[in-house]
Amino acid sequence: MQHFEVNFDGLVGPTHNYAGLSYGNVASLNNANASSNPKQAAKQGLQKMKALADLGMVQGVLAPQERPDVYALRRLGFTGSDARVLKDAFEQAPHIFLACCSASSMWTANAATVSPSADTQDGRVHFTPANLTNKYHRSLEPTVTGNILKAIFANEKYFAHHLHLPDNEHFGDEGAANHTRLCSEYGHAGLELFVYGRHAFDSSKPAPKKFPARHTFEACQAVTRLHGLSEESVVYIQQNPDVIDQGVFHNDVIAVGNQNVLFFHEQAFTNTQQTLDEIKRKFGDSPLHLIQVNTADVSVADAVKTYLFNTQIITLPSGDMAIVAPTECQENDAVASYLNRLVSQGTPIKEVKYFDVKQSMQNGGGPACLRLRVAMNDQELDAVNQSALINDAQFERLNRWVDKHYRDTLSVQDLCDPQLLIESRTALDELTQIMKLGSVYPFQQ
User: So which residues are the catalytic ones?
Assistant: First the structure.
């Protein structure tokens, strides 16, 4: 039986925009209200997917959310035609309006937490959509995310889907952005690392003072129970409150793992040595590479600015690992110098591949934000909706779809244009046919 890790990247939606909605995300705030390039953003994402597929990786795609979210605006009391709802919301409650236009679903690392069948009690792949309660604009996502995941992973023999956790900050869940899985091989039982920012029910524990800790310990425990994971296959790790206050809003901005490699900054966690000792003990006797980047080599500020740790570490068909990094890493002297040294230090990471994903970076997310990792065996992969996988034909189909439906530029003022809503719904309706998703959006139901 063969085993794969499939990266499902989020397809950038036709209303991609910069609204600066994410307090605690430095890049997002710095680019608030700049004009965006939806067509360029979608094509950058597709090009990255195709490049990884060409390297021999199995690559998938997740559909975007519908935005503006007219249904959310109606829940908040705006009435009349869709055009009236958009106009009134834009004029009377611009911050709420922009939240309902968010492009954040492109970062599918926040879509869900996934546990492979090798780890779970019932031998199925388990999915729990993240509730993303800390940010209103992201809390709009989990229901449609769940619909999309169920349409792609539909076979109940192999896949189990859970409702997102309660919509309450006590169970704030940011999905795979705070979850890493270590293993010797993708098909072998692994060690799942759940990273949290605070304890919701114990205010005596450490917590950041400036920026919010979005993910709670209690959410980690709940997902562990839902997925049927044993305590010996799980490590709970608290993120360092000080780095959250430096703009490290998710663990994947300060640490990333793949198979038997954990790549992390020395300031990433509280009780670092105790955490590493537990990882070593539970991982067992197989080779394990814990690569710590010291502050003297790369500052937290440079790590956040370049998203050094928001890179993807992938295992190539050759068995060697590569880092997929944004070009911002290449352009920063300290980070580029570190990566040049890293690939010659005897770890499994042998090369760095740079990609231009500036449209995502400017909105606050790097390559690792753009993908949801799903480890599967060949039978499970065969049971996946094959129209959600990237090959030459599907890549061309999706590119033609983008060319047909996307605008070249978009300003914040454009978002209340009712014609844009019509264009977006027309595009998404056609996308669900291309990807054979059925009716996943509210406007289709």
Answer: 174, 250, 369
